[in-house]
What we know:
The chain has 113 residues and is mostly beta strands.
Amino acid sequence: xxxxxxxxxxxxxxxxxxxxxxxxxxxxxxxxxxxxxxxxxxxxxxxxxxxxxxxxxxxxxxxxxxxxxxxxxxxxxxxxxxxxxxxxxxxxxxxxxxxxxxxxxxxxxxxxx
Length: 113
């Protein structure tokens, strides 16, 4: 998925936004505000950790032979705006695109210093 002349996101998955919403809500309970996404092996794993507390949930998605594995992090919840089928596109440590039929959100990745 091309988002600019210099950036093409090749790790693309689709899932029900309700599943993403539920997993993200549980990640919020950790209190870090940092969310890690891992796409690969027909699943999306979303996790968050702070000190010794961690929450991680894997969501199975339909197989997509064109999907590459990727891991990236972002900050700040916005998942409450997502409804219906959700498409997530990213690459390792690249911007993350969240797209539904009524909203598109492009988030910069959180890079550790």
